[in-house]
Amino acid sequence: MTTKKALISGITGQDGSYLAELLLLKGYEVHGLIRRASTFNTARIDHLYQDPHEQDARLFLHYADLSDGARLVTLISQIRPDEVYNLAAQSHVRVSFDEPEHTADTTGTGAIRLLEAVRLAGVDTRYYQASSSELYGATPPPQDETTPFHPRSPYAAAKLYAYWITKNYREAYGMFAVNGILFNHESPRRGETFVTRKITRAVAAIQAGRQEHLYLGNLDAVRDWGYAAEYVEGMWRMLQADEPDDYVLATGTGLTVRDFLDESFSHVGLRWQDHVRFDERYLRPSEVDALVGDPSKAHAELGWKPTVDGRALARIMVDADVEALGHAGSPWIDRVALATWEAA
Ligand code: NDP
Ligand code: GDR
């Protein structure tokens, strides 16, 4: 049996790290695109790292950026992957209002650069596009594969382009190119500025006496929160199907931000009302009020079914953040530098 090769853009992100881990477990050779940065940005995958000089190494990292199409063509031509997962994006909805053009370039145009790289390299590759429930935006729930889109942010508008261009490459060139329309999914590896992780980190810090208040925006927003590890398995299933198609992955249950707060704080015996403060800077110029997905098609055709709901997820994340606080301090705090400045 030949080893399958997968290429993951966004491997250093939440989903990329879980997907890499899953594919390595399945026996894949995994190639990840990483961005050159002045500090290491591979913390989520460091535990998977193998010295590429070792005979049995199956994880390989390559410098690349979705803004550099020529580099993508070179890499796809050299690696000749069986599967490409395009997970890279400027993925923060609020930030997309501050950096709309950058978001369009990475989150939208980035997809066409990667699709073109696959086409120009002439490889027989299956392509997964990380599409989002944000596409539905103002269209009320429940949302499924037939629900009309109404994006409400530069991020969602960029993802809309990526969604349609993926469909277009399927129709125009017969590529096995699919959209996973994923509702919010979280984990202990979730970025610290998304609302769930912001809450669970704060719960751990407040319980430890290191923080008193947590500043948040809209508590009424409804989201369908699932567990990222289960969702990356759904991505893989989409690329194993007989025919390319687009699928919603969701739990089918919505919670408000307030519900998530309640579950997280009460899990350690705290009351969120004693700690949460409002800050308007976390409001968006146009908000998405409610997203609740209907994952019936993925269940019927791919056999995919999530088991962790939003409340269970909150408890998993709080436990992980409480445990993480017990570990050695943050590497960002350089005590030597602080002492040097104090002495100066
Ligand atoms: P993260 O923000 O955790 O990760 C984003 C990844 O994209 C990081 O590896 C980042 O690299 C990389 N990246 C950003 N810009 C570029 C660029 N210009 N070139 C190359 N790589 C880049 O996102 P998630 O893991 O949460 O999400 C994965 C994908 O799924 C994203 O496309 C997101 O929009 C989409 N999505 C996520 C959902 C969720 O609930 N998590 C739901 C639906 C869709 P670096 O580490 O260097 O910053
Ligand atoms: P979202 O996730 O915008 O749904 O996008 P986020 O966790 O940022 O916001 C969810 C809801 O919480 C409200 N909110 C706050 N959000 C943040 N980040 N910080 C706050 O302080 C805060 N207070 C309230 C927001 O207004 C919003 O209604 C995520 C990303 O992963 C996208 O990439 C992905 O496509 C979608 O999920 C599905």
From TrEMBL:
One of its GO terms (molecular function) is NADP+ binding. Gene3D superfamilies: NAD(P)-binding Rossmann-like Domain, UDP-galactose 4-epimerase, domain 1. It catalyses: GDP-alpha-D-mannose = GDP-4-dehydro-alpha-D-rhamnose + H2O. SUPFAM superfamilies: NAD(P)-binding Rossmann-fold domains. Keywords: Lyase, NADP. NADP(+) binds at Y127, H213. Signal peptide: none annotated. Its EC number is 4.2.1.47. The keyword NADP applies. GO terms for biological process: 'de novo' GDP-L-fucose biosynthetic process. Pfam families: GDP_Man_Dehyd (PF16363). Belongs to the NAD(P)-dependent epimerase/dehydratase family. GDP-mannose 4,6-dehydratase subfamily. Catalyzes the conversion of GDP-D-mannose to GDP-4-dehydro-6-deoxy-D-mannose. This is GDP-mannose 4,6-dehydratase. It comes from Cellulosimicrobium composti.
